Amino acid sequence: MADILVLYYSRHGSVAAMARLVARGIEEVPGMQARLRTVPPVSAVCEAVTDTIPSEGSPYVSLDDLRECAGLLLGSPTRFGNMAAPLKYFLDTTGSLWLSGVLAGKPAAVFTSTSTQHGGQESTLLSMMLPLLHHGMLITGLPFSEIDLTTTTSGGTPYGASHVAGSDSKLPLTEEEKRLCRALGKRVADIAWRLAEG
Predict the structure, then answer these.
(1) What is the pTM (predicted TM-score) of this model?
(2) For 73-126, what is each residue's pLDDT tens digit?
(3) Which of 40, 1, 5 is nearest to 110 (CA)?
(4) Which of 147, 141, 198 is nearest to 176 (CA)?
(5) Which of 20, 80, 141, 162 is least surrounded, with the fewest CB atoms within 10 Å of its CB?
(6) Farthest-apart Cα atoms in the chain, separation
(7) Residue 157's beta-bridge partner residues?
């Protein structure tokens, strides 16, 4: 079994729910399994000290998780059209992986959640791709053969899966958003499988 890393940060739970759906899509591909990981919060005031294991949810990511993965899906809530600081903070520690080129040639994709329909989903997804491109990863999105992209009135973009959580961050994922999350996970896992098969 090859691992596809689903790395995310979630503040109110929407991105975590998306990550679980992405993982389900990954595991629809024979020989592939999802490895769910998160990042700890950061503090703007002082160096944050957190337990080495979160009290709930996915374990915290390590650089080894990235070294060992056959593909990567990166998820974050939107913060002013960009990824959340905790995820960016972790990615800024991956310089040694960049130097070794360990992620080069591996497939990757991104997903996000916003409070509003026009809260910066696409700019967030595009900004999340930038460090992955610097690592030499093969970026994939969602093709319009995914019919939900043409019919959704909630989240969903060709740049990656997305969700509109509402101003109180409590709207559940729509059926279209759920299917697009699973499709994105399956797509990355399928590409990883094809690359491994040569």
Answers:
(1) 0.95
(2) 999 999 999 999 999 999 999 999 999 999 999 999 999 999 998 899 999 999
(3) 5
(4) 147
(5) 80
(6) 49
(7) 160
